[in-house]
Amino acid sequence: MATQLESIGTLERRLNLSVPKADVDRQVQERLRSLSTSVRMPGFRPGKVPLKMIQQSYGPKVHAEVLGDAVSKALSDAVAEHKLRIAGQPRIEPSQEPADDVVAFSAVFEVYPEVQLKEVSQLQLERFQCPVGDAEVDKTIEILRKQRTVWEPAGRPAADADRVTIDFVGRIDGEAFEGGSANDMPLVLGEGRVLPDLENGLRGIAEGETREIDVAFPADYGAKELAGKTAKFEVRAKKVEAPKLPELDEQFAKQLGVSDGDLQRMRNEVRANLEREVAARLRARTRAGVMEALPSLAEFELPKSLIEAESAQLAERARSDLKARGVDVKDVPIPPDAFREQAEKRVRLGLIVAEIVRQNQLQAKPDQLRKQIEEFAQSYENPGEVVRWYFSDRDRLAEVEALVVEQNVVDWVLAKGATQDRPIAFDELMAAG
Questions:
Q1: Contacts of 195 (CB under 8 A, 6+ apart)
Q2: Is 95 helix (H, G, I), strand (E, B) or coil?
Q3: pTM, to two decimals
Q4: What's the pLDDT band for 371 if we cut at 50, 70, 90?
Q5: Chain segment 196-248, per-residue pLDDT in tens
Q6: How many DSSP H helices and E strands does the chain contain?
């Protein structure tokens, strides 16, 4: 098999290849003879169908399969011979010069760029820190209490933190508009979930009272037909309820899963869970900073095929997200280049991370995988079952492996770079989503 490698661009290559026609014809005949032992045709017993009839019926398909296999093997052997790292799928093109004894073709593809890393010590990095103390535990317990709020009739006009259940109709110039009416809508005052004029107009409303409230829509309001306009809302308060938080007692502790209702044990469990959550958020925050800094370590041309594949994947993810929200994606055009910039960043970062892993042998080790999975499992009622669930599926293990490798890279970069510890407020960290 003859091969010839050409460079047709910074990363583009062309391999000119050929396979002997005699080898293809021989394999076609072998496959047809193998088929003859099992193929069924009307009027013939199994294994007795004439080879000529099998060739007429199956010859073109078998020939295409054999030729495809031969082309794949020729390309694979040539890639190994020239020590190439192909990025994306090669494009196979038939040769323009016909030959009697060979099938000639070309494979056009891109190769991975050579990634030459600069000194990691030049990176200015931050490692975020947030201690968990009694105050943070208290805040968390208070949030847990609020999540278990029960609502009782207020017996007075509505104030902030009260829940008001309303019927309303909104009109502009006397005409009701789409989306401007609802029945039995609960609204907690002070949370800022509706336009300020509407929320302000509901303060002090009593159960059974009806009010007219002028509401100004901001100029940048999402619905263009309402932006910058003022609507008059007729609102009737059907219920005004005050919040009642559960007492911090044995019953509350049992609701949180502490079987004996011991409050100190409850606090200890809340603290342990909070420390895991804070540690995970700190790692994520620090990791994001490291990943944002890494692209400055190397400059290189990106394979177009990888960018196109990543763009397509991001577009498909966007479609899936819209579909999950109930949007008909047929009516939502996604331009081909909508995700190109994001795809370029992801491809560049991925190649740099891969090079750091390769150079420094930062692949995930078995003990790291188990430790990470056991950490995930700690927040579940039956950790052992969760651990077995992860180890029973290769795809799930691969996801954990990717996380471990990424953390290995982050730890390595933090150790080599100019890293400073930066405190972050508990409320800011937990509000980050």
A1: 215, 216, 217, 218
A2: coil
A3: 0.76
A4: very high
A5: 999 999 999 999 999 999 999 999 998 888 999 999 999 999 999 999 999 99
A6: 12, 11
Instruction: Give which of 76, 109, 80, 79 is closest to 92, Cα–Cα.
Output: 109
Closest listed residue to residue 142, CA positions, set 427, 432, 428, 379: 427
Distance CA 110, CA 90 (A): 8
- Phi and psi angles of residue 426, each rounded to the nearest 5 degrees, phi first: -55, -45
Q: Is the confidence at residue 420, as pLDDT, over 90? A: yes
Long-range contact set of residues 304-309: C-beta below 8 Å, sequence gap at least 24: 304/88, 304/110, 305/87, 305/88, 305/89, 305/109, 305/110, 306/87, 306/88, 306/110, 306/347, 307/340, 307/343, 307/344, 307/347, 308/88, 308/343, 309/88
CA 64, 68, 72: angle at the middle one, nearest 5? 175
- Enumerate residues 6+ apart whose C-beta is below 8 A from 297: 117, 118, 120, 123, 352
User: How far apart (Å, rounded) are the C-alpha atoms in residues 226 and 231?
Assistant: 9
Integer Cα distance of 339 and 345 in angstroms: 10
pLDDT digits (tens, 9 = 90+) for 384-397: 999 999 999 999 99
Quote the tokens at residue 320. 């899936």
Phi, then psi, of 334 in degrees rounded to 5: -115, 105
Three-state helix/strand/coil letters over 136-185: HHHHHHHHHHHHCCEEEECCCCCCCCCEEEEEEEEEECCEEEEEEEEEEE
d(CA 427, CA 335): 39
Tokens of 74: 């020729």
